[in-house]
Amino acid sequence: MNTVDVIIPTYKPDISLFRLIDDLERQSIRPEHIIIMNTEEHYWDELIKSSRENPLEKFDNIIVRHVTKSEFDHGETRNQGVALSTAEFFLMMTQDAFPKDKMLIASLAKALDSDVAAAYARQYPKTDCNLAERYSRKFNYPNEPMKKTQKDVEKLGIKTYFCSNVCAMYRRDIYDRIGGFTHKTIFNEDMVYAGNACKKGYAICYVPEAGVIHSHNYTCMQQFHRNFDLGVSQTDHQEIFGGISSESEGKKMVRQTIQHFRHIGKSYLIPHYIVMCGCRFLGYKLGRNYKKLPKSFVRAFSMNKEYWAETV
Fold this sequence. Notes:
Elements: E1 4-11, H1 16-25, E2 33-39, H2 41-50, H3 55-58, E3 62-67, H4 76-83, E4 89-93, E5 98-99, H5 104-111, E6 116-124, H6 131-140, E7 146-148, H7 153-156, E8 167-171, H8 172-178, H9 189-199, E9 203-213, H10 220-236, H11 238-241, H12 247-263, H13 270-288, H14 295-301
Helix pairs in contact: 6-12, 10-13, 12-13
């Protein structure tokens, strides 16, 4: 049986992190280690002080390392977590995603054949998830499994490289050959990695049997900032995203979501949804053209302000 470690970047964690750790410890395949890469040590100390439990005392396989906010990077901080692992497979998760059942690790590990660089899980909405976000989960995470390679770019477009570090498992041997996650990235480190893997002849698997509960009810401005950073990442990685449009896929989702609202008798949601999509699109287009913008605008539009400290 292959060994598995779990790596979780955290920032301002709350008590729900302990629930996630408990869920992981109860998996049918227990992780060798759970490695927490925490941003700003004082937030961790505050959590331990305010709670009645300490996972480091409860379990013998927890490793915690701290970085400052200025040191945090979506790619490099994850690389640092991987460097602490000696497992054959490692599972990347975020602090706000929770296993749907006890078979999450086993289901993802089963998909990691020798040619599969990464396998990612299906995301299910939380109970408080709004209808637009709920439908987007169905659009992006269908019932059917997929094994995607570079040959699928013509058919799937940018979705060929879709992979989410909300919950994705990686083969360490392929990770080492590829060179890990990109060392400085504003966002989207998972898709950049997946694109590199596909271009080097490996596959990315979507495993719907592996599920996590994860969703957000973003505001229009949050969508703007998030999609600005998405556009920046695609501009900065032309070796992956050059010549591949993501806009057609976005338009398809918008059309289907509007049809869904009409079908369920919720047409009154359409105007707000269109405004939301406009914020996404504007943020994305500005991000794609960020090099033409004044530096002050770039920092103001970005979700990840710290990224620009030495960049602009």
